[in-house]
Design goal:
The structure holds two protein chains of two kinds. By secondary structure, chain A is an alpha+beta fold. Helix content of chain A is 42%, strand content 20%. Chain A is built from eight helices and 14 strands. A four-stranded antiparallel beta sheet of chain A has the order 4-7-6-5. The chains are: A alpha+beta, B alpha+beta.
Chain lengths: 207, 270
């Protein structure tokens, strides 16, 4: 898998990373940079791996494609009528396969649903059903909350959408070993130029 | 002792995180390759990028590379953009393109023959693979008028049409590379029309598939196509008819411009 050369650590920083890891080992912690990255759907420079939806993404190319953050938009310059409605409704544009939350653009259904969720530590959950749901996924009628891992959703529709999107990401991660470009294309709904395979909704399509 | 050890570890952690984290690396990945144009010799080229999605903050281009896989040539974006980027364009063009009438001023100048005319992979930020466009042999028109226009950046789908480059300021235009003057019927460009012209055309059509630099000259009946009717028209003119071939009879331009034929070079005319 390709690692970004621009994020490679210098010798000095590698030494510091080793010292850091040793220090955290002494203190009994995991890589703190990874823990931080998990919380923000970010990239850990120490371990050269990323995290999105609490899943490890060891490919920088796929991580960049996931684009797990919002983009400021200029609504006046958006020509797609479906997008314009989605901006008003904090919704998903099915035409462009992008979503909008609080005026920010999210480039995929996955990041859109994550933006609509709340991140909660499992240890903070008191409801037994919710804790069970957080281990996999599910809806709690008592609390009126759906969960996928640490993400909490206020509607069944969002829960269903998020679960489907996370399944697509898992499928992409499974493809990484065989072909990184296929992993990217299967998530983005594009075409792998290496294998000439087109993907839609996470699956290869015959053309 | 344990407290001191833990405190020391925490201190190292804090320092380490600060040293390793660095500033957030903002990436402007919503620019997509939108239009590609080239002359047949590659000296006149442009690439147009388009901000795909209405995002206003795609300004962080500094040190990102735009790359041609076939030629290995690279362009490094020098600086951050200014203003809202939503739905705007960036134009990379060669100096020869910039000098053409009708060409909007490129935002950036790229080297001549930056990309291959016979198939290439163009990358916006090869380092981060923000966008990649692949075209094959025969995909890129080089008639001096037509460009590749991407219709779906996810699937590398495109169409071809009259070029229409636009720059960041929103200035748009179109270029048309002028054809050379030629003599109708002098298909082998030897300065005269005789039996060697239909023979060379028949050879190109059926034997050698040799490239014709001035298809207009070989289009003896000016029907916009090069086929068997052209050597027939030449032979009729040479041996049976006194009626001239369609203009130009001597050095001139093709009055019929709405066909795909052109005249890239013709040495028999100034």
């Amino acid at each position: 898998m390709r690692r970004p050369s621009t994020l490679a650590l210098s010798g000095e920083k590698r030494g510091l990373a080793r010292a850091l890891l040793l220090a955290t080992a002494l203190a009994g912690c995991d890589c703190p940079s990874c823990e931080e990255a998990k919380g923000v759907n970010g990239w850990c420079n120490t371990c050269s791996t990323g995290y999105v939806a609490s899943l490890e993404v060891p490919s920088f190319e796929l991580f960049e494609t996931l684009d797990a953050h919002g983009h400021d938009i200029d609504p006046a310059r958006i020509s797609c009528a479906s997008c314009q409605k989605a901006i008003e409704d904090d919704g998903l544009c099915e035409v462009c396969r992008m979503g909008y939350v609080k005026g920010q653009l999210y480039m995929s259904p996955l990041t859109y649903y994550l933006a609509r969720s709340e991140l909660r530590r499992v240890s903070d959950i008191s409801c037994a059903t919710c804790r069970e749901n957080a281990a996999a996924w599910g809806w709690c009628d008592s609390c009126g909350v759906g969960r996928v891992g640490p993400y909490a959703f206020a509607s069944r529709e969002d829960l269903k959408g998020a679960r489907r999107a996370i399944d697509i990401l898992k499928g992409s991660l499974a493809r990484l070993e065989r072909c990184e470009s296929c992993a990217v294309a299967s998530f983005a709904g594009g075409r792998c130029p290496e294998c000439d395979i087109r993907y839609r909704d996470g699956e290869a399509v015959l053309e | 002792m344990n407290t001191a050890r833990i405190a020391g570890a925490v201190l190292v952690m804090a320092v380490g995180i600060a040293a390793l984290a660095g500033p957030a690396e903002a990436g402007s990945h919503l620019w997509k390759i939108n239009e590609v144009f080239s002359s047949d010799d590659g000296t006149i080229q442009f690439i147009e990028l388009h901000e795909c999605c209405g995002a206003a903050g795609e300004i962080y281009l500094t040190n990102l590379l735009f790359t041609s896989k076939a030629t290995g040539k690279r362009f490094r974006f020098p600086e951050t953009l200014r203003g809202s980027t939503a739905n705007r364009y960036l134009l990379l063009g060669t100096a020869a393109f910039a000098a053409l009438p009708g060409a909007p001023r490129p935002d950036y100048i790229i080297a001549p023959e930056f990309f291959s005319t016979t198939g290439d992979t163009l990358w916006y930020s090869e380092q981060r693979n923000y966008d990649r466009f692949v075209f094959g042999t025969g995909d890129l028109p080089t008639d001096g008028r037509t460009s590749i226009q991407v219709t779906d950046f996810r699937l590398d789908r495109f169409t071809t049409g009259k070029n229409s480059p636009t720059n960041y300021r929103g200035e748009t235009g179109s270029v048309e590379l002028m054809d050379a003057l030629f003599q109708r019927g002098d298909c082998n460009d030897d300065g005269k029309m005789d039996l060697s012209d239909p023979i060379s055309l028949l050879s190109a059509l059926f034997l050698t598939s040799a490239e014709i630099s001035c298809t207009d000259a070989c289009d003896a009946n000016d029907d916009g196509e090069i086929d068997i009717s052209d050597p027939v028209a030449m032979l009729v003119f040479l041996f049976l008819s006194t009626r001239p071939l369609p203009a130009p009879e001597v050095c001139g331009a093709d009055a019929t411009t709405e066909d795909p034929l052109n005249c890239r070079a013709f040495s028999g005319c100034p």
